[in-house]
Amino acid sequence: MLDLNYDGLGISVDNYVAVVEIQRGPNNFFDTQMISDLADAFNKMEASDDVRAVVLCSEGKHFCAGNNFGSASGNEERADRRVEDGNPLYAAAVRLFDTNIPVVAAVQGAAVGGGFGLAVMPDFRVVCPEARFTANFVKLGFHPGFGLTHTLARLIGRQKAHLLFLTGRRITGERKEGSYFAAWNFVYKSALGVMLLLTGFVLDFAGFVPNVEQTMQVKVAMVSLYGLFPLVCYTIGAILFSRFSLDEKAYEVIRTELDARRAKAADDADAIAQ
What we know:
- By secondary structure, the protein is α/β, with parallel strands linked by helices.
- It has helices spanning 32-47, 72-80, 88-97, 114-120, 137-140, 148-156, 158-167, 177-206, 216-242, 248-273; strands spanning 9-14, 17-22, 53-58, 103-107, 110-112, 124-127, 132-134, 170-172.
- The protein folds into 2 domains: 9-174, 2-enoyl-CoA Hydratase, Chain A, domain 1; 178-273, no CATH class.
- It is extended.
């Protein structure tokens, strides 16, 4: 029989699926002890024949609002910590990422800062439209934590991850969020492609010669290429983007068309198989 009794965690096992509920509502802040307890529980379940998958969820309004910086025990631990000792919170978090048993996160409300990192740790996420994800570290003036610089970049791509890290932008659980990321990539790559295409022609026309002192005409051309010209390209990209509607009605039309294509592809595959 598994001993899975931890303060602030509710754990039940039914039909080989363990449900691990963070019970620190409504905001479900974590501390070093809770992350360590989670890692201990995951290790025990991984070693048990009674558990084959885990669902990680939270009670209350939010999935996890991040680290509890206001806790007395946390402040005492940080005050006594030496640099050479490292951060025990991150040491405990690493143990979570070493878990080999499949984990699914059920996310509602806010997943902020370290809570965002905790939501990214599982293998899969199921979210409601009202879910909100924020890597707000830049607004607090320190480096993104909980391994997000590694895990989030692997999950959604380096460029999108950097956009969230450097702006502190919030994304929601609605699937149309991907449309906005795709639109931004379209504008960015369109501008970059046009600029790279024309760079050689402009420099050649201006009389650019490598490894020599450049004429004023070449210098003006280079300043235009790397200063004014990108602005023009981004403006053109933004104009092209403005021609695409991303309101609710257009989104539903796009989703319907994509679902129809998938259904047709599945039917064609079945016909070929027969």
